[in-house]
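Most newcomers find our protein records easier to grasp once they have seen one. A learned vocabulary of local backbone shapes supplies the integers on the structure line. An example says more than a description, so a record of this kind follows:
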Amino acid sequence: MAVLQPRRKRVPVHGVLLLDKPVGLSSNDALIKAKRLLNAEKAGHTGTLDPFATGLLPLCFGEATKFAQDLLDADKTYEAAVHLGITTTTGDTEGDIVSTGQVEVDRAVIEKAISQFVGVIQQTPPMYSALKRDGKPLYEYARAGITLARDAREITIHELVLLDYRAPTLHIRVRCSKGTYIRVLGEDIGNAVGCGAHLSALRRLQVGNLGIDGACTLEQLAAADELTRLALLAPVDALLHSFPAIRLPDELARRFLHGQRLALGKEAIAFPATEGRVRVYRQSDQLLLGTGLMQSFGVLAPERLISVSRA
């Protein structure tokens, strides 16, 4: 009879893993694999990548999960391959072919077409998406052959660059706001040039201030020993570098961690000149305490706090 091995007890792990997600794996499956390899108690991802997509998937562990929403709201950068002349049910390679057509489009036509998608535009979310209607994701309706009306949403395309075009495939780089569906953008470009299109490849290069450079693969994580795996984690405040920093002396740090609003003066180091969100540290040991809101008249209000005993 086989002897069952006891399950390893999960341990506190805090930080951010920049994962280069492979094709064919869902974001949640990638998270489960990384969480198991790090033997971590608590983990979450910062916005999904479709299974057919690759690239940067920041994974948050422990205290870093408190700040995952900041990356959900961040701008993102992608490179994509748009295959002209073929449309699919999903707008990418995972769907069934809906239509095919001739591709007789030159580069000048494409460049003119994509220019109309730069700036603030309206985009209708696809049926094959995780957006919910009456508690069910839209993709469940789509798989049942049901198409529901969807309201267009305002998004921002900060940059859209044609990197290469060799018919029938064009390659683009997109820097965009949250809520942008690159699949839909590819379809819209195909419609604009008159032959339809779908995405044949998609790779995410950047989320907020975090980039693909230095990201690791699941294979690299699996091959590393325990100490090396932990060393691959960026610190919790890697998610917060876009915010100004404040450093508090010990007594103010203690009061901040108890949720007290603080009227700051010269005792706060690197006092920000403007109101808004800030990252807060204890001056004596540079320990991250959490985030706060700088309000009028120099008042600092705690927002999301780190559990210092676990940091």
In short: The radius of gyration is 23 Å.
